[in-house]
Each structure stands twice: as structure tokens, then as C-alpha cells.
Amino acid sequence: MTVSSITRQLAEAVLAVRLGCTPRQRLLLELLRLLPLYTQIGNVAIWDTAYHDAMPAEDDTSEVGRLIYAIYDFTTVPFYGAFQPVEILGAYVSICTFLRGSGVECPKVARFTEL
């Protein structure tokens, strides 16, 4: 399983259970959903720039905001340094515990193979 495809699925899961998103939250979730395309073209740097450009000036401390930030934090674990599947899986298990606390289900993943 790839990190980018799980990121898309997690963003879609948040959208499915949290219908009252602000326009900015919706944009950030859509950017998370688009990560697989950026990965396919081999340029996650422009995705990361777009994501940061869309972030609010103040931290979004709402429930949806915290879910979005958690997904982003998980997603960027493999951005810097060597791809470490065990570390990424550990981060995934951690984020899933957090997401489930808000009613967001996570797909089962045995291992991550690439970004």
C-alpha cells in the first residue's frame, strides 16, 4: 500500500463523516485527496507548497481541523529522508487511533511500500 493512496482514502473518510467543513477545510482535504497524482508526476514538493499556501494563518483547532492536520502529519513522515516502512506503519497505527476517536474509519494496512 502506498502512503499517498491511504492519504486519499483518509481524506475521503473525513469528508464522508464531517459534512460541515469550511471552504478552507474542504480545500485542504481535496489537496490531501490529490496527493497520489502529485506522486505519480514525481513532484510532491509542489503539492506540499500548495497545501501550505492553503493553510489558515491561525491554527484550526476545530475537530475537522485537527483531523486534517493529523492526516497531513502522517502523510509527510516519508517526505524527508529514506522511506522507512516500519516507522510509517507505526505512524499510521497512531493516526488511526486518533481518527477512530472522531468516528473516522481507517483502511487496514499490513505494510507500506512507497510514498
Description:
It is a single chain. By secondary structure, the protein is mostly helical. It has one domain (3-100). It contains five helices and no strands. It has helices spanning 3-17, 23-40, 44-54, 63-75, 85-100. Helix 1 (3-17) packs antiparallel against helix 2 (23-40) and helix 2 packs antiparallel against helix 3. The longest helix has 18 residues, at 23-40. 27% of the residues are buried. The mean pLDDT is 93.
- State the shape: globular
Q: How widely separated are the two ends?
A: 9 Å
Mean pLDDT: 93
Radius of gyration: 13 Å
Number of helices: 5
| Number of separate strands | 0
Proportion of β residues? under 5%
How do the SSEs run, as a string of H and E?
HHHHH
DSSP helix fraction: 55-70%
Described by strand count, sense and barrel closure, the largest sheet is: none
Structural class: mainly alpha
The poorly predicted ranges are none
> How many distinct folded domains?
1
Q: Which properties best describe this structure?
A:
single chain; 115 residues; mainly alpha; 0% strand
In short:
This protein is mostly helical and 115 residues long.
How do the helices and strands line up, and which of them pair or pack?
Elements: H1 3-17, H2 23-40, H3 44-54, H4 63-75, H5 85-100
Helix pairs in contact: 1-2, 1-4, 2-3, 2-4, 4-5
